[in-house]
């Protein structure tokens, strides 16, 4: 689908994306690149990075792949330094690296819980922490009037509770909290905007294939108020909006892009029954003698 944004809105900008070589992260890399940004992608798997970089370059995007694990602080430091070496500065950090698997809480070892917290929550904080000196107003290659932008990819799992996702729910709750705290502190001190995106079920992603077997997907679609799964493109467009000047006053928000799924509940009454019932109750209460409490009607 064609982007509704102008092709040069990120001209001259540099973005680093963790987990930017595959899935949602790769689509965000592509769209930021198509709109003018130079792209550095960080990931653990060299082969994934290599093929992502050559695909980005074939689209005319300046791109580099940097091997590293967000759980390792030295990797974070090295990858950020390499980004600066390649492109001279950093304007946008997107934390898209994540780990996930379905598991009942009773079968999850504390180390399994910790692993996901380490990737999603600690990894996000580490990348933000190490990127600060490059992103802040007046940092290397930055102009002195504006700071950079951070986007943290989150989820909606923890808005209520999600079956067999205790580790990821806890990890993403921490990510949202990090987003708000950094928006407050770094927005104030360094003019850095920090926002999140919480995707719903997005087709053709590891998230969906790991968490929902094929036969569950159709059922899942029926539960989305818009009756369809999201596309990676939808998440990338949300990212573009947040990093562009259109989002210049948005700070500390996690934008939910899920077709309304997290709000969805089964209807407990058919719509026609609600209309009938509501009229009867309203008429009864209007005609009630004065002095009788409505609770007794
Ligand atoms: N069920 C239960 N526990 C699991 C598990 C599963 N499916 N997969 C991993 N674990 C546990 C392991 O048993 C281990 O705990 P233990 O030492 O107590 O046994 C712990 O998690 C670490 O596992 P390990 O395989 O060593 O971790 P890793 O660092 O190699 O891989 C994962 C990290 C597990 C998150 C892996 O799924 C991954 O790399 N994911 C990245 C891609 C991804 O998930 N994308 C989807 C994004 S939505």
Question: Summarize this, please?
Answer:
This is 2,4-dienoyl-CoA reductase [(3E)-enoyl-CoA-producing]. The protein is an alpha/beta fold.
What order do the helices and strands come in, and which of them pair?
Blueprint: E1 14-18, H1 23-34, E2 38-43, H2 46-58, E3 63-67, H3 73-87, E4 92-95, H4 110-135, E5 149-153, H5 166-190, E6 193-199, H6 206-211, H7 214-223, H8 232-243, E7 254-257, H9 271-287
Parallel strand pairs: 1-2, 1-4, 2-3, 4-5, 5-6, 6-7
Helix pairs in contact: 1-8, 3-4, 4-5
Bound molecules: coenzyme A (COA).
**Dominant shape:** globular
Helix content: 40-55%
The total beta strand count reads 7
Alpha-carbon Rg, integer: 22 Å
Characterise the protein shown here.
With 297 residues, the protein is an alpha/beta fold. The protein has 2 domains: 14-266, NAD(P)-binding Rossmann-like Domain (Rossmann fold, 3-Layer(aba) Sandwich), CATH 3.40.50; 268-297. The chain is 46% helix and 12% strand. It is built from 9 helices and 7 strands. The chain has helices at residues 23-34, 46-58, 73-87, 110-135, 166-190, 206-211, 214-223, 232-243, 271-287; strands at residues 14-18, 38-43, 63-67, 92-95, 149-153, 193-199, 254-257. Strands 3-2-1-4-5-6-7 form a 7-stranded parallel β-sheet, with helices on both faces. Helix 1 (23-34) crosses helix 8 (232-243), helix 3 (73-87) runs parallel beside helix 4 (110-135) and helix 4 runs parallel beside helix 5 (166-190). It is globular. The model has no long low-confidence stretch (mean pLDDT 93). Coenzyme A is lined by residues 98-101, 103, 108-109, 111-112, 115-116, 206-207, 210.
